[in-house]
Design brief:
Elements lengths: L1 H8 L17 H13 L24 H20 L16 E3 L2 E3 L3 H20 L13 H9 L3 H12 L5 H6 L18 H6 L5 H18 L4 H15 L11 H13 L1 H5 L7 H11 L6 H29 L4 H16 L6 H4 L5 H5 L3 H23 L9 H7 L7 H10 L1
Antiparallel strand pairs: 1-2
């Protein structure tokens, strides 16, 4: 009977697919159908039948194909109603590929991603817990399915950036100093001594409050568009405000279920909600609101959309930071860079290697360049000076510098033993 059911499935499943994609829904069933089709001596042809032709508003005169399709649909719904609330055993489908069984159940699609998650997710969560990422909470408090849904809905480049930001390894002042790309870890917007990824959000420098307020208006608009529970709407906005401005969360008289999730998010930290780690409970409360209003929307899609919108907020704060870092010519960081450039010109460049000297231009031209260009210029000059110093210690002139000029420039003080030895060498 199992094989017969699979062959009957060929009548309603298109068999024109040339590629069987493991990412397809119910890949195990589809693969089994392909298997028995390939073994069958009968030549099968596909035929597309419009679904739901028996719904209201659709003509009731149905041909044989449409009638079979409606009967199949009704039988499938009846079977689902009978079984979906009861745990089902893992049934082997004749002709399917090897079964992949995890503690959560049988894997029917996306084998690679689910295996990777099964193997590495516990280790990653343990890492975050050891680092204190979730403050007084832990990784078990996080709605990980919502985290995954939101990330998969983002462009790949944004996913990579979010990973770097959340782990603290994007190009903030702290990391650039460790990588020796900058001489200080200062924030380019407010000149705070150490700029890390959290400071990108909390910075109170020029223009940051305007950007934050614009992003909060966008979040509020998105919550309204998603028909968010009014009390839930106020709670989210108040929580983000309290985190950004380091103020206590003051909303009271909340419904018990909302008070519970607010306390849990408070233990984990509102920063984690902003950076894509919501706690369990948000989606359930919103689902209850949808159910009361008779909406067909789901809490799962609501939390996914919210996490994605908040990730966009963090990105825009980072983008504003970068625009200031590139274009702000009046910040203390820019003034410090200009002072270093002037000091380099005062030292002179004649003893640097030829390739380094090719980058020397009029001082006014260098000082007028964008901040990133000036930093790059300083880096190259610094590399040239280090090379020249190494050559001096070995008594070898850099490329493009004559030996006698090099000796005169590095002559020891008169009367010293080094000077006497140098005179004997010159004679």
């Amino acid at each position: 009977m199992g094989r017969l059911a699979l062959l009957e499935g060929l009548l309603i499943v298109s068999v024109t697919w040339q590629t069987r994609r493991p990412t397809s829904q119910q890949f195990d069933i589809i693969a089994a159908i392909h298997y028995w089709r390939d073994l069958s001596p009968v030549q099968w042809k596909s035929r597309h039948i419009l679904g739901h032709q028996d719904d209201a508003g659709v003509p009731t005169v149905l041909d044989r194909w449409a009638t079979l399709n409606c009967e199949m649909d009704a039988s499938a719904k009846a079977h689902w109603e009978q079984c979906h609330l009861q745990p089902q055993p893992n049934i082997t489908i004749s002709g399917e590929p090897w079964q992949l069984l995890l503690p959560s159940g049988k894997v029917c699609r996306n084998f690679r991603s689910q295996l990777l998650e099964h193997i590495f997710a516990p280790e990653a969560k343990s890492y975050w817990d050891r680092k204190g990422r979730f403050a007084e909470g832990s990784s078990v408090d996080i709605d990980w399915p919502a985290v995954g849904d939101a990330r998969r809905s983002m462009p790949r480049a944004r996913q990579h950036w979010q990973t770097k930001h959340n782990s603290g390894f994007c190009g903030v002042g702290k990391m650039m100093l460790q990588r020796k790309e900058r001489d200080s870890a200062k924030c380019p917007r407010c000149d705070h001594e150490v700029e890390d990824t959290e400071h990108v959000i909390l910075c109170q420098g020029s223009g940051t409050s305007e950007v934050w307020q614009a992003q909060m208006r966008a979040v509020a608009k998105e919550l309204t568009k998603l028909e968010t529970d009014p009390q839930l709407h106020r709670v989210i906005m108040a929580g983000l405000h309290s985190y950004r401005y380091n103020e206590p969360f003051t909303l009271t008289s909340l419904r018990p279920e909302i008070q519970s999730v607010v306390e849990l998010q408070g233990r984990v930290g509102w920063r984690n909600l902003l950076e894509g780690f919501p706690v369990l409970g948000w989606a359930d409360i919103q689902q209850q609101s949808y159910d009361r209003n008779g909406s067909k929307r789901t809490g799962r899609r609501w939390i996914t959309a919210l996490v994605k919108k908040l990730a966009e907020t963090v990105w825009n704060m980072w983008d504003h930071r970068n625009s200031v870092n590139t274009n702000n010519e009046t910040s203390l960081a820019s003034i410090e860079i200009n002072n270093r450039i002037i000091a380099e010109y005062n030292q002179g460049f004649w003893h640097l290697p030829r390739d380094t000297r090719k980058q020397i231009k009029q001082r006014s031209e260098i000082l007028a360049a964008p901040l990133s260009t000036r930093r790059h210029w300083l880096h190259n000059i610094s590399v040239g000076r280090r090379f020249a110093e190494e050559q001096r210690l070995r008594n070898i002139p850099p490329p493009g510098v004559s030996y006698m000029d090099w000796v005169r420039a590095n002559r020891p003080p008169d009367g010293s033993e080094e000077c006497a030895a140098l005179r004997r060498y010159e004679i």
